[in-house]
Amino acid sequence: MKLYCLSGHPTLPCNVLKFKSTTIMLDCGLDMTSTLNFLPLPLVQSPRLSNLPGWSLKDGNVFLDKELKECSGHVFVDSVPEFCLPETELIDLSTVDVILISNYHCMMALPYITEHTGFTGTVYATEPTVQIGRLLMEELVNFIERVPKAQSASLWKNKDIQRLLPSPLKDAVEVSTWRRCYTMQEVNSALSKIQLVGYSQKIELFGAVQVTPLSSGYALGSSNWIIQSHYEKVSYVSGSSLLTTHPQPMDQASLKNSDVLILTGLTQIPTANPDGMVGEFCSNLALTVRNGGNVLVPCYPSGVIYDLLECLYQYIDSAGLSSIPFYFISPVANSSLEFSQIFAEWLCHNKQTKVYLPEPPFPHAELIQTNKLKHYPSIHGDFSNDFRQPCVVFTGHPSLRFGDVVHFMELWGKSSLNTVIFTEPDFSYLEALAPYQPLAMKCIYCPIDTRLNFIQVSKLLKEVQPLHVVCPEQYTQPPPAQSHRVDLMVDCQPPAMSYRRAEVLALPFKRRYEKIEIMPELADSLVPMEIKPGISLATVSAVLHTKDNKHVLQPPPRPAQPTGGKKRKRASDDIPDCKVLKPLLSGSIPVDQFVQTLEKHGFSDIKVEDTAKGHIVLLQEAETLIQIEEDSTHIICDDDEVLRVRLRDLVLKFLQKF
Amino acid sequence: MDPECARLLPALCAVLADPRQPVADDTCLEKLLDWFKAVTEAGSSLLLLQENPCLVELLFHVLKPQDLSSRILSFALRLAGTFAAQENCFQYLQQGELLPGLFGEHGPLGAAAWAAPTVRSGWIQGLRSLAQHPSALLFLADSGAVDTIFSLQGDPSLFVASAAGQLLVHVLDLAMRGPAKGHGRLQAQDWPACAQRIVCHLEDCLCSEAAPRVTQALHVLTTAFGHCHGLWTQGLWVQLSPLVARLLEKDPMPAPHALVELLLSVARSSVPSSNPGLWETAAQTLSRLSPMQAGPLAAGILKLQDCPQALRTQAFGVLLRPLACVLEATAQAPGTPGLLEGAAGDPMAVDMLPPSKSACVGLLCSTLAHLELLQPLPQRPSPWPQAPLLAAAVTILRFCNGSAAPSSEVGGRLCAMLVGCVRVQRAALDFLGVLSQGLGPRELVTQVFAVLLEYLMSPDSSPTVLKKAFQATLRWLLSSAVPPGCCDLEPRAQLVLRELLAVLQKRLCSPCWEVRDSGLEFLTQMTRRWGGQAGFRQTLLASEVPKLASQLLQDPESYVRASAVAAAGQLSSQGLLAAPSSPEHPAGPQKTPLEELLLVLTTDSEGFPRRAAMRVFTEWLRDGHMAVAEDRERFMARVLQAASGDLDWEVRVQGLELALIFLQQLLGARSPGAAPPGALAQALRALCRVQLFEFAFRSLFDCDRPVAQKSCDLLLFLRAKAAPSSSPQEAGDSPDVAPVEAALQRWRAGEQGQPLGELAPEAVLAVLRSMDLEALRDTLAESSDHVERSPQSLLQDVLAAVGVLGDNEADCY
């Protein structure tokens, strides 16, 4: 069993598991932090961005000034943003049989895999994962395609040139594999390969293994996966949460008794407690708005935003903010808000019960009804007519490199009354803000990551007790900035095995058993013999037939009838050579009785010696030695076959035969 | 006993003795016992029994084999004990063989009823009451009761077991009291037989291998040394201390907690004066116990008034050791001077922290709590290591929020155990607050403020931790902000204040109401203390805080509104409140703080904000707030009108308090005796204008007693001021008091809706004089259930409860 690790990002995993005869890809997350090296794509022509000076090498060489621009001491690539794909060279991706998706954030690289690698398999995911994943992809494509950029920079990627660039460009990894965003056509084609599954549904893969999604409690439709054969069980835990937010709670019990537990997608901000962060978010929002400022919340169109809107729903009246408009701007805003209301079966119990009242499960429906929350596909059109300040705007993309958020950063950045509140933990907020410097607006960092923290992980591992834990290397040591925080790492016994990008791990357990079926007629012919109370044995002579990873014992063909001189024989009639087997022996030889028997049969001068493993019976007269051990008996005599056979028969009297 | 009760008594006894009657509930039986106890304490029990033979009959009746409930049986045992407490009555009951029947082997002790814990408890309590005289001692010895008490020490019911231990101590004390008189200290062999048996039993227990028996003996001894003050206790310690010392040598030490209790109990008694060996035992115990077990002993020793210095030093060392470990865990260089001389670099000391998280947290919390209690005591260790303790508290808080940099493996372990631990955070913040009593080095104080600010700013601080952080910050600001002889905040405090207000601003917007509430409380206290300091005023006015505070008057949570009222009142007193405006109504008409608070008083649906508004008004009136001084009568009229109609009695009491202050301001509170006639007439007219009398008279008949009492006090004060000056005769024609008295009559009858109408000052005075306010005050001073609590009422209740059942029975037939 092997694990091929194609992504180095612990929360955007992409691993391939070879288990029995199957090749299973676990998630295909897309690392979008690469876009932080690019200049933002403004929706409206931005004189500031277009007038940034080109960057020149120390020696004054300016050949890169078209590709690289400088802003407040940082250098950015002036080109269409590109993404860092999972490793494609480590394993032939066309051999992947299935892809299991655990949540909508972990499928963003899907079109790259399914459309460009020769992949012919099936993708499994839950319905909300697919629908919301589609929204995220659609938004991403839309953000990038609606601001066409003629230029595509590639000179800087040259290894010799990259070495001369300032950080962080200099240190960017695998830049040659960075790719531009996929198209909507590719998205549709990729999504068409997905087969929908429900929680606890058992899916047979080629008869060899069974995969089952379990609720992971992190997002609508998010799953952990169990991959098991009859005798082995691998659990894949990716992006799970024990907090009571909107999704169905995590199913922990089914993870018990795993041989291997692959652990990914823990919280990215282990020191920040989500409750405290939500409080911080609300306080800062209220403070800004009360002072007449605007609040900008860069976010994804689904996920935490539902919880934030719910918190605000409860908070705005108490904070006296009910007259402040909330705007949600995304090409998929409408679908996202509506989808959330229809996936009742994937919601937590409280929200499910609301559906039967019937009431919308999320209170944002009421916010929309009362006109407190308004949503628009983009800043163009209706929004510009309705726009009223001070206000709160939720919009993407959290990287601040594309999407409507770029416009608001340009618009509000100059006033210290306004605040940008970062809630998504995927991007470093300082790096995200770099191309907007100098910036007067206030910045608040309240990352809300509901995924498991290390305390919860250690409780979980104590509970489910896997034999081995495999996790990204980042989880096996304290965060580099807080090296003394030994509590911020996975702590388990035996220590977790760690992996990093482009590494192949041999998982530390051997398969020892395989299930084999016996045909009824063969079973009928067996005659079990009880050798110990409760344990019976029978010998089986049969043909092992293996097809589609199923093993069946069939009755052996009858011995060929004498064919009466016919010598012709077809190849297909060639039956296995069924030798008459020697019977199997069992039991032990009681030495004293054996000696008595020998004496009865005329042997004299018998001497018994005890050895570490058993006994040696010496027949001094016959110059013969019988070595009796637990699992073997040897008769050593000097070329006297008659004597040997006589002694053998005496030994056999004490043993049972099959 | 009053005749009415004596009349009811036979019926009561009959009811109690009848198994068919439902047993009156436990509280009735307890009340009956209390009453009998009071009666016997006031007079002769013998006489009582002779005059009321039904009582003895009841006791005899209990002895008969029957289905009496265990509660009645227990009651009878305790009742018999109460009567037998007097020696002559004891003898009287002995004659009838009643006592052996109740407490001897042939009584409940041998019967099935003994299985009920309440019966065993009644048996013990009965004996406890009875054991007051030498005859009782003889009885105990002869009846074999002492052995039963020994066995009851291990009773499965904790109440019974504990009562048995106490009874043993009581009997021992009783036995020793007789001979000790006049003899001074006795040798053990001269002790009475009963005492010798008990001591022998205790010796056996102390030598036992069974830990529960050792614990029982230690508990008994602890009680003995705690409650008995005879000289014999010294002899007892001489006799038993070798056995106690032997316990210390056992490994593991049996019952360490009970041992600590015993040592402290002995140390507090008169034993140490004659037996200094105790201190050696204590020192030995300190060194043998684990840190967690030694803490209470060390703290107890340090609280003693008189104890050898060496032992105090040792105890303080034990108490400080966990904190020394914490300091050591972050010390940058080994050998940095720590909390304990010599502790630095001592691996034993550093390793003493327990490995499990819960034990370590428990140890730190209890250490901090002990030190917190010790700090204000006059006998606290001196020199008090203020600076290292401060450093330790700051370090613990830093471990808890993950910002400490551990310098050793132990530090790393501590860090992992303490991160995010709310319990330790709370204990350390409390301790830090207490340490503000003594200052520290400048650099450390800077660290204190830094760590407090970290806690106040952190989004991860839980509401309770935040509250403690606010409290500690306030204490530190109070103790260090204004240097002596200086009238404004020192520059460092000024800086802290600026950051503090920024945090406060955010906290006042928190979605968590507890946080908003503690933020407002902090603001109120800070303003009360520094409202007059220019530096504070400037910083506060430059922030959003006053505006936010007045916005919180509309908070959905009533506690927050109440705190906002207090804060707004305080800010307004100091002239720091900007007129509130919310984003909801940015251009709405702006109300003055007085209008705002009146609005709260008249419209808020919850009591807390209204009470808070009344308190603010009272304070404003007392301090002569500008808004009040402008038109005091109008202010009073409006507030009293609102308060008099309030449904919350506390608001009404506050209203009367306000009225009293007004009265005092008009008539002069300080000057004794009557007010000058001119001033009085003027004042009375003003009081009539603000309709104070209607409120006060109406309150006299308020259904809530405190309101009526307060009103009575108010009117008495007024009468004292008015009485001698102008009598009705002097005034000439007598005013028409009929309508007032008619109204009062109606109010007394419960018709509160009737208005009083216009009042003339003369009529008020006349009514005041005619009312018997003193009698009313005396009536009100009695508790509201004084009628119901009479023994007669109790007996009637018990009988009535049964009587009802009797009727039903008749109906059934």
UniProtKB/TrEMBL annotation, chain A:
Annotated spans, Disordered: 548-573
Keywords per UniProt: Cytoplasm, Nucleus
GO biological process: negative regulation of transmembrane receptor protein serine/threonine kinase signaling pathway; regulation of cellular response to growth factor stimulus; RNA polymerase II transcription initiation surveillance; snRNA 3'-end processing
InterPro entries xrefs: Beta_Casp (IPR022712), Integrator_9su (IPR027074), IntS9-like_C (IPR048660), Metallo-B-lactamas (IPR001279), RibonucZ/Hydroxyglut_hydro (IPR036866)
Start and end residues of each Beta-Casp domain: 305-433
Cellular compartment(s): Cytoplasm; Nucleus
One Gene Ontology term, aspect cellular component: INTAC complex
Family recorded in the similarity comment: Belongs to the metallo-beta-lactamase superfamily. RNA-metabolizing metallo-beta-lactamase-like family. INTS9 subfamily.
Record protein name field: Integrator complex subunit 9
Species assigned in the record: Odocoileus virginianus
UniProtKB/TrEMBL annotation, chain B:
Lineage of source species: Eukaryota, Metazoa, Chordata, Craniata, Vertebrata
Subcellular location: Cytoplasm
Keyword GTP-binding: no
Principal place of residence: cytoplasm
InterPro entries: ARM-like, ARM-type_fold, BRAT1
Name of the protein described by the UniProt record: BRCA1-associated ATM activator 1 isoform X3
Top-level taxon of origin: Eukaryota
Key words of the record: Cytoplasm
Family listed: Belongs to the BRAT1 family.
Presence of keyword Disulfide bond: no
